[in-house]
Predict the 3D structure of the following.
Amino acid sequence: MSTKQQRPRQEDSWREEDRLAEQQTRDRQALEALVGANVMRDLGRPTGLYRVQARQVWGGTYRVNVFVGADATSFKVCHSYFLSADGSGKILKSTPAITRVY
């Protein structure tokens, strides 16, 4: 067979790999958002909340930072947690412990 006939199969394989990688990224981002929401549910909403940043470090381990401030030039981290969560975003363990402050 010629190279031209083999090329579509390779391109289809690459496209499928790209689709899978994009889906994994979307799934990870959705889980990070859920973990961040669960932290906020347990913590409460601080005055001047700017944003919550939840990042998967590895496996089921996350770093969650809660930023407060009027805008991007003045925000600061008011709470920071290193935690583990299950595949549904439920927080299993947190350092420091998350307590309701607000």
Summary: Residues 3-95 form a domain with the Nuclear Transport Factor 2; Chain: A, fold (CATH 3.10.450). The chain is about 40% helix and 30% strand. The chain has a mean pLDDT of 90. The longest strand covers residues 49-58.
